[in-house]
Design brief:
340 residues, alpha/beta, 12 helices, 34% helix
């Protein structure tokens, strides 16, 4: 069967995993012993990262941080802009496109147009440029910085999903981990994302043990909450929208949660699923539009699909919700961001 083939194929890749692990460890040692120089900054730099190749909910977490803290301090967000077709430093503006800056940074900018959001390959140079050009910025959030050893952040928020935590995963190319699991010990806070809302104490303790949470680390559990409305040219209540059959279009790392949510509401839809950060073609769009139904998509896909001027296009938003101890999380971040 296909599953057996995949298991055997990944086992065959095991020697490559060992080689990949060796390269990572050599790089880590080079930074540790200052063969390659790392840089610290005198102001807060908060990393929101993961150990795996994606789908852990970094963008919703950054969105959450911007919602909670932009009224208290001046934040900037620095991202690589994964999937963009440009190079160099770009500060996002109302003229930015997904192909220039990446879909996730553009989505964040649409939600937080007064925040300085920039993309650049070299994080160190990017931070220096923000400091020089935007002196009012008090703190920088690094989108996906666990692997960037050139910059030593002041605080690290590490995300892992409930369904596929790093203790159930393996290094590339056997699994989806970009760095070895031991790197988790460098995190200040670990957040298990996309948890079932009714997660019990026994399960939480199991995760705490398996994730090897040490005494200096804080562990939090969050879930995803979908908006009870959809947004397009108009705002429609979710239950109203779901009365008619529609088309679901996704280009995200894992659409399982969204599909399950829609099914739980007895929605009738055809799902067109594409790979993460997919760039849509006119032919694909024409195919959807011809079906003459409402089209529902994610916030991330929406910023790319809007360029096609689709009449019946709607997006569903998601928010991170802490299952408990949210006030404690905010207190920790207030301290890190030097907010009184």
């Amino acid at each position: 069967s296909k599953f057996v083939f995949m298991v055997l194929f990944r086992k065959a890749l095991f020697p490559l995993k060992i080689a990949y692990d060796s390269v990572i460890r050599l790089r880590q040692l080079a930074y540790k012993y200052s063969i390659i120089k790392s840089h610290r900054f005198s102001f807060p730099i908060i990393v929101v990262g993961n150990l795996s190749t994606g789908g852990t909910g970094k963008t919703p977490m950054i969105d959450y941080l911007l919602q909670k803290f932009t009224n208290k301090t001046t934040l900037a967000v620095l991202s690589r802009g994964y999937g963009r077709k440009s190079c160099g430093f770009f500060k996002l503006s109302k003229f930015s496109t997904a192909s220039n800056v990446g879909d996730e940074p553009l989505m964040l900018f649409k939600k937080h147009p007064n925040t300085i959001i920039a993309v650049v390959e070299n994080r160190f140079k990017g931070i220096k440029k923000i400091v020089r050009d935007y002196p009012r910025v008090k703190s920088i959030i690094l989108d996906d910085g666990m692997q960037h050893l050139k910059v030593i952040p002041s605080f690290k928020i590490l995300l892992t999903t409930f369904d596929k935590p790093w203790f159930k995963d393996e290094l590339l190319p056997v699994g989806n981990l970009r760095v070895n699991k031991s790197q988790s010990k460098h995190a200040d806070v670990v957040v298990v994302t996309k948890c079932p809302i009714n997660i019990n104490l026994k399960t939480k303790n199991f995760y705490k043990k398996k994730l090897s949470i040490n005494k200096n680390q804080k562990l939090f559990f969050t879930t995803i909450s979908y908006n009870d409305y959809v947004l397009g040219k108009t705002k429609i209540n979710m239950d109203e929208f779901l009365k008619n059959e529609f088309i679901l279009v996704t280009g995200i790392a894992n659409s399982k949660n969204l599909v399950n949510y829609l099914k739980s509401k007895n929605a009738k839809f055809n799902h067109y699923q594409f790979k993460d950060h997919h760039y849509y073609t006119k032919n694909q769009i024409d195919k959807f539009v011809k079906l003459n139904k409402n089209i529902l998509t994610t916030e991330k896909d929406y910023v790319k699909l809007t360029t096609f001027k689709i009449q019946r296009l709607f997006r569903i938003g998601i928010e991170i919700k802490f299952i408990e101890r949210e006030k404690f999380f905010i207190k920790i971040l207030n301290k890190q961001l030097k907010i009184n």
